[in-house]
């Protein structure tokens, strides 16, 4: 069968990302504004910085890049999600527990589905942050509420049999014929559209009192795309431009501070969740109009992936920033975000080196190594590895910033353990460790460079990870 009539997983992935973006733009018009501003910022950044602007990915990749976020209720639904995304060459990577990552009530655990091979990421890096309710956690749900919630979730169908059958075929056969691919994409996009079915008002409000996130997941008989995030090269510029257009942004940019050194990990922000009209069914059967604030416009700037040592330094820096900000707030209850950012930059400057060479030399960041044939003697060129994953604290911060209330969390109750092994079992699939994936990228690049140069890879490992060039 010719390539023109058969869509491979990466082509399904790229087409699905475009289809979701088109659908979400129609449902949330402010998202289209966010895309327009993102494109403006990226174009201006490239014009100003030239080739350096593409240090962490070509502008074509950055412009096309999206990450989505969805929420489901049960292990069965999570396993079905894994089948749908598996058809597009997207694998579960990482485990995120948001239950303790925020002061608000966010009773979910998460993973992210994304490509894992370097070549697949370059083709299309679409990723979906996928969260699931932990209904057995007594800090959030009583035994009675858990029973009723589980019964409600078990009665609904998020992904129909035809969609799942096409997904399984695509994963097994490495793609789909064009006509079946079109049907798969139509059904997959439809599964994440906002439903027009009336919402049981009393049931939704009962869950909302516990957590707005729980109500968004378990208060309706469907799911939907919660946000769809473009990538931008200068998130501070985007934040200012969005506000200049009269769009209300959340109070802060989540993640590392803006500073003079290399960007690492992930910085995120969003416009505030908008009031969207919905229909509700009251206890006496009357259909009434109201509004919900559950969907928002997130945007992200991606930096260099950190090693385990780098991530430990990051986590320690975040705690230090919290402590210093708390002390400053005790002296001045009106502590501004500008002042908090100043505190964060001070911590950053003493924690991280101000150059990529320093990150590499100290073993804090991941870098690949490619042979540059230019010049009389071939040299090894060091390239930063883009961070492809997420930060639980930042994700919870975005969630929290867009909630109408903190909900209710009973800290006197014991939580229930959920970890990466549990998630893997629920999915029926291996849960990839992001650090292992980054290390594999580096090792493969070193092996390729060593083969090209005809040297021992161990020599390159020793020298290139410290100085960036072979002896």
Automatic annotation (TrEMBL):
- Enumerate the SMART domains for this protein: DUF1338
- Tell me the segments the record calls region Disordered: 450-471
- Which Enzyme Commission number(s) are listed? 1.13.11.93
List the biased-composition ranges (Low complexity).
459-471
- Presence of keyword Iron: yes
What cofactor does this protein call for? Fe(2+)
Q: Which InterPro entries match?
A: HGLS, YdcJ_bac-like
Record keywords: Dioxygenase, Iron, Oxidoreductase
Pfam families the UniProt entry points to = HGLS
Q: Give the UniProt family note.
A: Belongs to the 2-oxoadipate dioxygenase/decarboxylase family.
Q: What is this protein called?
A: 2-oxoadipate dioxygenase/decarboxylase
Q: What is the lineage of its organism?
A: Bacteria, Bacillati, Actinomycetota, Actinomycetes, Micrococcales
């Amino acid at each position: 069968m010719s390539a023109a009539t058969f869509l491979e997983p990466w082509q399904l992935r790229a087409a699905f990302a475009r289809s979701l973006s088109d659908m979400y733009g129609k449902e949330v018009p402010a998202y289209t504004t966010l895309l327009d501003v993102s494109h403006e910022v990226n174009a201006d950044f490239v014009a100003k910085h030239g080739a350096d602007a593409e240090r962490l990915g070509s502008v074509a990749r950055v412009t096309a890049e999206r990450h989505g976020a969805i929420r489901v209720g049960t292990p069965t639904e999570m396993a079905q999600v894994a089948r749908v995304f598996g058809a597009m060459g997207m694998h579960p990577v990482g485990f995120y527990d948001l239950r303790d990552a925020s002061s608000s009530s966010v009773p979910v655990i998460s993973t992210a589905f994304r490509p894992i091979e370097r070549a697949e990421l370059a083709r299309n890096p679409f990723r979906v942050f996928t969260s699931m309710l932990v209904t057995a956690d007594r800090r959030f749900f009583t035994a009675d509420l858990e029973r009723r919630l589980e019964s409600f979730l078990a009665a609904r169908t998020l992904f129909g049999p035809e969609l799942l059958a096409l997904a399984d075929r695509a994963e097994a056969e490495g793609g789909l014929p064009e006509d079946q691919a079109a049907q798969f994409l139509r059904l997959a996009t439809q599964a994440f559209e906002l439903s027009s079915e009336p919402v049981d008002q009393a049931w939704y409000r009962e869950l909302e009192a516990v957590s707005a996130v729980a109500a968004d997941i378990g208060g309706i008989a469907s799911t939907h795309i919660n946000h769809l995030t473009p990538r931008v090269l200068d998130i501070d510029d985007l934040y200012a431009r969005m506000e200049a257009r009269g769009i209300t942004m959340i109070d802060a940019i989540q993640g590392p501070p803006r500073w003079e050194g290399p960007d690492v990990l992930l910085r995120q922000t969003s416009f505030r969740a908008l009031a969207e009209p919905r229909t509700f069914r009251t206890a006496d059967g009357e259909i009434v109009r109201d509004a919900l604030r559950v969907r928002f416009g997130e945007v992200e700037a991606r930096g260099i992936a950190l090693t385990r040592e780098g991530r430990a330094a990051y986590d320690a820096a975040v705690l230090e920033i919290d402590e210093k900000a708390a002390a400053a707030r005790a002296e001045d209850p009106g502590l501004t975000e500008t002042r908090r950012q100043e505190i964060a930059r001070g911590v950053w400057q003493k924690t991280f080196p101000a150059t990529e060479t320093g990150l590499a030399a100290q073993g804090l960041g991941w870098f690949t190594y490619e042979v540059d044939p230019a010049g009389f003697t071939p040299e090894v060129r060091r390239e930063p590895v883009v961070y492809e994953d997420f930060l639980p604290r930042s994700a919870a911060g975005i969630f929290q910033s867009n909630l109408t209330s903190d909900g209710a969390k009973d800290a006197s109750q014991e939580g229930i353990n959920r970890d990466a092994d549990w998630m893997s079992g629920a999915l029926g699939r291996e849960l990839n460790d992001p650090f292992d994936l980054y290390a594999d990228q580096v090792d493969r690049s070193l092996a390729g460079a060593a083969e090209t140069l005809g040297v021992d890879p161990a020599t390159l490992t020793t020298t290139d990870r410290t100085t960036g060039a072979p002896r």
